[in-house]
Amino acid sequence: xxxxxxxxxxxxxxxxxxxxxxxxxxxxxxxxxxxxxxxxxxxxxxxxxxxxxxxxxxxxxxxxxxxxxxxxxxxxxxxxxxxxxxxxxxxxxxxxxxxxxxxxxxxxxxxxxxxxxxxxxxxxxxxxxxxxxxxxxxxxxxxxx
Length: 145
Prior knowledge:
- By secondary structure, this protein is mainly beta.
- It has 1 helix and 12 strands, in the order E-E-E-E-E-E-E-H-E-E-E-E-E.
- The chain has one helix at about 65-70; strands spanning about 5, 15, 25-30, 35, 40-45, 50, 55-60, 75, 80, 90-95, 100-105, 110-115.
- Strand 2 and strand 3 form a beta hairpin.
- The protein starts with a strand and ends in a 28-residue tail after the last strand.
């Protein structure tokens, strides 16, 4: 699958894979200068890219595991969803979960993009739902006897 990418700046870097079998493509901070993110705050960081995600797919923006576990930085919405008809800049809302300031450097890998298919559905109102063994058991209800 090919995805058309528009570089919005000269310094924008195309997504890359960390290994041949990596599902995610690293997204890079397109910054002129370092940005400091205060504890428990969010900062919008541009990738300097716009993309054409193919119809029937969406771009899922996930945290980079090392950045999240070692630096406490993750996408503020935990998982971003980029629809196939969106043509604007890919912006990452990086949130600092830590207790100290964190610095994001120009060209630093800040998130990862996974392109995923989805199923369009229609919702239909009904009077009753089919019964199941679980029924209406909610949070923590499975596996209990």
